[in-house]
Design brief:
This protein is α+β, with helices and mostly antiparallel strands. It has one domain. The protein is built from one helix and five strands; from the N terminus they run βββαββ. A hairpin with a 5-residue loop joins strand 2 and strand 3.
Length: 65
């Protein structure tokens, strides 16, 4: 049986904020908290010495290496 190997084309995420009820709230790009989530992710990657870039595509955050 032949299996075609496929490569990953894109990795992205939607920034979320956990509200006081413990529920995740998706954050649109125009919500200032969205930038805070991205800044936190950038810090985490730097701290772990990961060469990860982040860019916006609408409400999504796209990762690159």
């Amino acid at each position: 049986m032949y299996h075609r190997r496929e490569s990953l084309q894109r990795v992205s995420f939607l920034p979320l904020w956990v509200n006081t009820m413990g529920q995740p709230e998706p954050l649109p790009a125009d919500d200032p908290r969205s930038d805070k989530v991205v800044q936190y992710m950038e810090w985490l990657c730097r701290d772990q010495k990961l060469d990860t870039g982040f860019s916006r595509d609408g409400d999504e955050i796209v990762l690159s290496t």
